[in-house]
Structures are given as structure tokens and as C-alpha cells.
């Protein structure tokens, strides 16, 4: 004889209960502080059902009451609810070509702690060991209890199929078939959920855009790696091998001063990435020692022949990125195109050149122009927030799982 809890009907009811809790929590995240009656109108559940779900989410440490709204007439003022940002914590770890960045965010995705460290070696064992140490230091620094860390997300460049938990290929670090998730595990913390950097950032940008009514989002990442992602209604196009959007080796139609990692000179990476541009500047004698892309930008703001050469290199890079955006817009026909990545990609002068080139070279054909805007997530904080996205999404999908 089966019990009610294990019967098909019981399981279906529990699944419905948890699904409804997810819908309500997302509504609070997207529109809060919000009253119970407003939630009921948004999600289509009865006020009685909403009240019951709110109680469960409060017990689970997900929502709390906000300051009462002022009454517009007679009767008691409505008491809205909002996310409880004091309890649950989520780890985000980003591994780039030069450094590891680790941070903690709250249930709203707000950054509450950040640490970074340069690689001593690009070997997976060294990089992943550094990441684990940073996570431990971050926990100690913030005073967060490990039990309050309910999600752990990590991202890096290249080909990262999430279900495999591995980095299949990241040319920037010379990685092949690296056990990414296993290598980041820390005792007492959740198992890391892994994703490629471009997709992690694209999903977060798409969520922010969705709140403004944009559902079909094209995201282009321009930094030490080049990549794109296409997100429609919160779902990312992955391709049959989880490799969609890896565009480093797409021909740019131009010839670069330095070769791509594959040996060609016309790859998009060779003409548009921060790493390739920095290498070209060193070859031209514009930069020396450990100088990087920021130093090239500083040089371009000066006077003299070297400054003019630096400006020309940066302008050419911006034009090539803008041309790439125009082509991607023609392919995907999005509501919105977002350019993110390094600080250079989102700086006012260079972004404006990218956006104007995209507008000039787009196909058009009678369509409304597709807006192009800079990413909201920038710099080390943005990388951490993006890395934590997969863990946050998993929690929001089933917020009562730990209750």
C-alpha cells in the first residue's frame, strides 16, 4: 500500500506547489516590493493561494515584508513583500585568461564580496587551486556561514557544455577536456554549476532586458575572447554540441598584424580581441613590458605619432566589431543587441563607434532599427554576477527544494 506522499497524485500536487512557488518568487524579484493582490494579478493565482505560498517562501528565507505602502483611502495600508536579501548567498567564480575572480551575491544578484588573483600558471591544476583558495578566503572575509551558500556558479571562456561539467576547449588558456566543476569543488559548499562566460553574461543581460519588455536578445562579448549568444524568452540557443556562439575563428574579411591561435590572420579574434590588439601594439613598439589594453587607450588620448597610431588601431577594432554586430543582427533579427566584455568595449567613445557602425552597415530592408546598448554587467563585479547566474536560476526554479 502506497502512502499519499509517494502516490502519483501526491507527487503531482507537490510538483505544482513548488512550481507555483517559483512563479511567485520570480514575480517578487521582477516587480517587488509588491502587494499580495498585485502578485495574484500577475501570476493568475487566487489570493488565498498566494497567501499560502508567501508563508512558505517566508519560512524558506526567500521573501520578507517591506515597509507598508501608504494608503490611498480608508482601510489598512497594504503591506508589500520583497526579496529577503539577508540570508541566502550564491558564489560566482570567473576564470579568465589572466586572473581568477570570485564573489558572493545575494538573492537579488547584488554583489556582497569580491576577490581576484592573477594566474601563476595557466595549468588547470594551478588555476583551479587558486580558485578554491579564493573561495575559502571570500567566505572568511565576508563572515558568511557555508550553510547559507545555497548555490555556486562558475564560468570561463571557450566551449563549456554545462551538463558535462567540463571545459572541452579554451584556447586562451590552452585547456582541453578539463574537469571544471570537479576541480572547483570545496567541501561544505554546493557542487558548482558551470557555463561559458559569454552565455552566463548573456543570460543575466537578457533577464534585465526582459524586465523592460525585450525578449529576443543578441549579446556580443568583446574582450580577450570574442563570442556571442542569442537568448529568446530566457532560453539560450546552444546548438547540437553546446558550441553555438563561438565565433573567434569567423573570418573578419581583414588581415591582422598578429596571428590567431589557429595560425590564421583574418579571424575575428585576431582583428578584434583585447589580447590580439595588445599583442599588435607591442609588435609596433607602442607598448612595452606588462602594458595592456588600458595602457593603449591611455596612449591614444595623447599627442604625437604613437598616439595617432594607437587611435587608428582602436578605431579599426571598433569598426570591425560594429560590422560584426550588424551581420549578427541581420542573422538573428533581435529586439535588442548588447555589447559587453572588457572596459574598452563599453567605454563611451569606442562603444559609440561600434553602435554607429552597426547602424550604418545593417541590412535594414524597411525594418525598425535594432537598438544597440552597452552591457549592464561590466568589470570584475559583472563577471561574478554573470558566473552566479546559473546557480541563481536553479534556485529560483525550485526555491522550496531546501525547505
In words, what does this structure look like?
The strands form four sheets. Strands 5-4-3-6-9 form a five-stranded mixed sheet, sandwiched between helices. Strands 12-11-10-13-14 form a five-stranded mixed sheet, sandwiched between helices. A hairpin with a 2-residue loop joins β11 (226-232) and β12 (235-236). Mean pLDDT is 91; it is low at 1-5. The chain contains 14 helices and 14 strands. It has 403 residues and is of the alpha/beta class. The chain folds into three domains: 8-83, Winged helix-like DNA-binding domain superfamily/Winged helix DNA-binding domain (Arc Repressor Mutant, subunit A, Orthogonal Bundle), CATH 1.10.10.10; 89-198 and 382-397, ATPase, nucleotide binding domain (Nucleotidyltransferase, domain 5, 2-Layer Sandwich), CATH 3.30.420; 201-379, Nucleotidyltransferase, domain 5. It starts with 7 loop residues before the first helix and ends in a 6-residue tail after the last helix. 42% of the residues lie in helices and 18% in strands.
Describe this structure in a few short sentences.
This protein is an alpha/beta fold and 403 residues long. It has helices at residues 8-31, 36-43, 47-59, 124-142, 180-184, 197-211, 268-272, 274-283, 293-300, 305-332, 343-346, 348-361, 379-387, 389-397, and strands at 63-65, 81-83, 89-95, 99-105, 111-118, 149-156, 167-170, 175-178, 193-196, 216-222, 226-232, 235-236, 336-341, 372-374. It is 42% helix and 18% strand.
Amino acid at each position: 500500500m502506497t502512502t499519499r506522499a509517494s502516490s502519483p497524485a501526491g507527487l503531482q500536487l507537490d510538483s505544482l506547489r513548488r512550481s507555483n512557488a517559483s512563479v511567485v518568487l520570480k514575480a517578487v524579484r521582477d516587480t517587488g516590493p509588491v502587494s499580495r493582490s498585485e502578485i495574484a494579478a500577475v501570476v493568475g493565482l487566487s489570493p488565498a493561494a498566494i497567501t499560502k505560498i508567501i508563508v512558505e517562501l517566508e519560512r524558506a528565507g526567500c521573501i520578507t515584508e517591506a515597509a507598508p505602502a501608504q494608503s490611498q483611502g480608508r482601510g489598512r495600508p497594504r503591506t508589500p513583500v520583497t526579496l529577503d536579501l539577508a540570508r541566502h548567498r550564491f558564489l560566482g567564480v570567473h576564470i579568465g585568461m589572466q586572473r581568477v575572480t570570485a564573489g558572493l551575491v545575494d538573492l537579488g544578484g547584488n554583489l556582497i564580496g569580491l576577490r581576484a588573483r592573477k594566474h601563476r600558471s595557466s595549468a588547470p591544476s594551478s588555476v583551479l587551486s587558486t580558485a578554491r583558495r579564493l573561495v575559502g578566503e571570500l567566505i572568511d572575509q565576508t563572515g558568511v556561514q557555508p550553510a547559507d551558500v545555497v548555490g555556486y556558479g562558475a564560468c570561463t571562456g571557450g566551449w563549456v557544455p554545462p551538463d558535462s561539467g567540463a571545459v572541452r576547449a579554451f584556447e586562451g588558456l590552452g585547456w582541453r577536456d578539463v574537469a571544471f566543476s570537479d576541480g572547483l569543488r570545496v567541501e561544505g559548499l554546493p557542487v558548482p554549476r558551470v557555463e561559458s562566460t559569454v552565455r552566463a553574461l548573456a543570460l543575466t543581460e537578457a533577464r534585465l532586458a526582459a524586465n523592460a519588455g525585450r525578449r529576443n536578445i543578441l549579446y556580443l562579448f568583446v574582450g580577450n575572447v570574442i563570442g556571442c549568444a542569442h537568448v529568446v524568452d530566457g532560453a539560450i540557443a546552444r546548438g547540437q554540441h553546446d558550441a553555438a556562439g563561438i565565433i573567434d575563428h569567423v573570418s573578419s574579411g581583414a588581415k591582422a598584424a598578429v596571428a590567431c591561435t589557429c595560425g590564421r590572420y583574418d579571424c575575428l579574434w585576431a582583428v578584434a580581441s583585447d589580447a590580439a590588439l595588445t599583442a599588435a601594439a607591442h609588435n609596433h613598439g607602442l607598448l612595452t613590458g606588462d602594458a595592456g589594453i588600458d595602457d593603449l587607450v591611455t596612449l591614444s588620448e595623447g599627442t604625437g605619432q604613437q598616439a595617432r597610431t594607437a587611435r587608428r588601431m582602436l578605431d579599426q577594432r571598433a569598426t570591425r566589431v560594429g560590422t560584426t554586430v550588424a551581420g549578427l543582427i541581420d542573422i538573428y533579427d533581435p529586439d535588442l543587441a548588447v555589447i559587453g566584455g572588457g572596459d574598452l568595449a563599453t567605454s563611451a567613445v569606442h562603444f559609440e563607434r561600434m553602435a554607429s557602425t552597426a547602424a550604418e552597415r545593417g541590412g535594414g530592408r524597411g525594418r525598425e532599427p535594432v537598438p544597440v546598448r552597452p552591457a549592464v554587467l561590466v568589470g570584475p563585479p559583472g563577471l561574478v554576477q554573470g558566473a552566479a547566474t546559473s546557480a541563481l536560476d536553479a534556485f529560483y526554479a525550485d526555491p522550496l527544494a531546501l525547505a
